[in-house]
Amino acid sequence: MDANVGIVGVGTMGSMALWQLARRGVSVMGFEQFGIGHDQSAAGGETRIFRTAYKEGAAYIPILQEAYKQWRELESETGNQLLTLTKGLTIGEPGLKSMKNVMKSIEEYDLEHEILHYEEAKKHYPQHRLLPNEMIIVDHNAGFLRPQYAIVSAVYRAKELGAIVHNHTHVEKIQSETDGVSIVANGQKYKVGKLLITTGPWINQHINDFDKQIEVRRLINTWFFARDLKQFDESQFPPFTREGNNFSYYGIPAVDSYMVKIGLAASSEDRIKSPNDLDRNIKMGDLSSVKEIVGRDLPNLFEDPGRVSVYMEAYTKDKNSVVGWLPGHDNIAVLSGFSGHGFKMAPAIGKIGADLVLDENIPFSIGRLSPDRFADTQTSW
Ligand SMILES: Cc1cc2nc3c(=O)[nH]c(=O)nc-3n(C[C@H](O)[C@H](O)[C@H](O)COP(=O)(O)OP(=O)(O)OC[C@H]3O[C@@H](n4cnc5c(N)ncnc54)[C@H](O)[C@@H]3O)c2cc1C
């Protein structure tokens, strides 16, 4: 046996599971096809929003609150600043489902917040051009994370605690056996007791029939220069999501005193067949919507992005992630399908992954995230 637990994919969730297992003294071995902290997948682009008042549903809040604690623990174990709280804005008309969800989560969990109606909102956040029927919900437990730095921090801390990581090592084959799980990576065979699959957008390459349930989407992030940079630093311009009837986009302040990041939520139109088909080239059509939005809603940014980068992510149909045992197996668990909103939860998801493979009690209700909900899925290996 090479390790008690193996982890395939040391990106966002894999790095956090590695750290969570290593800090419990478990022998753990991770396999990553690229370098640690790379920007080829779901965690690239320097920043991620952390929010607690959650438009995706109040059911996530216990996990988000645990994630907050875990981010602070990772920071104190490594001495690295990973999460900066700045407050966070959700902007939109009060009647939208996403706005109602945010309000519901605030009410259910008594979250610290403010509500700013049009006149007041304009005064506080003049960078946003608002419509008179829009409001801003200010979430006090929100800010931004440093994703690639967080992955590197978790992996190096895990290594200090005894974890073994093979980077630039592509896992080609996974085989469940009666006494463990065998893995072939870069042509070499390894054996582990239990396995966590955390391959993000590559998930369908290992679990064939998940491709009916999980799709890979191409996401573009754009960075814009500001006419007056001071207005857009993190003290003046908190991370935000702006919601509409047929759009949703988000922004992150100029955290390195340089450019403001804007991203559009992905839809099924952004689907790609496989992560290996990801086109990183930018075409004019890729930028038309974001340029229109910036021109319309953020007039103090220059309309042409100074930087554009392409990433990808695994989406489920219900936008809930996939966390649990692979159907029909008690030695392989999956953490995947984070549907564009998983980074903020990562250390809590890593903890849940560790609890799963160690057969420990999971103090959250994760039934709705179970791969069992893909009832017609036949796992094939
Ligand atoms: C542009 C963009 C913006 C986002 N913004 C936010 C945000 O603001 N806030 C938020 O909370 N979330 C956000 N998300 C979502 C969040 O970043 C993802 O949910 C999260 O990073 C997914 O993590 P993962 O571990 O599933 O995938 P990854 O982080 O991609 O990890 C998968 C890893 O598996 C490795 N791998 C795959 N196959 C193999 C193999 N065969 N052998 C070895 N290694 C393998 C990959 O190389 C990769 O390192 C955003 C996502 C994107 C793409």
Describe this structure in words.
- This protein is α+β, with helices and mostly antiparallel strands.
- The protein has two domains: 3-44 and 147-212 and 318-373, FAD/NAD(P)-binding domain (3-Layer(bba) Sandwich); 82-144 and 214-316, D-Amino Acid Oxidase, Chain A, domain 2, CATH 3.30.9.10.
- Helix content is 24%, strand content 28%.
- The chain has eight helices and 20 strands.
- The protein has helices at 12-22, 61-78, 97-109, 118-124, 147-160, 203-206, 284-297, 346-357, and strands at residues 3-8, 28-31, 48-50, 83-85, 88-92, 113-116, 135-139, 143-145, 164-166, 171-177, 180-185, 188-197, 214-224, 240-243, 248-252, 260-264, 271-272, 307-316, 322-325, 332-336.
- The strands form three sheets. Strands 5, 6, 7, 13, 14, 15, 16, 17 and 18 form a nine-stranded mixed β-sheet that branches. Strands 1, 2, 9, 10, 11, 12, 19 and 20 form an eight-stranded mixed β-sheet that branches.
- Strand 15 and strand 16 (260-264) form a beta hairpin.
- The protein is globular, with a radius of gyration of 21 Å.
- The relative contact order is 0.20.
- The mean pLDDT is 96.
- The chain binds flavin-adenine dinucleotide.
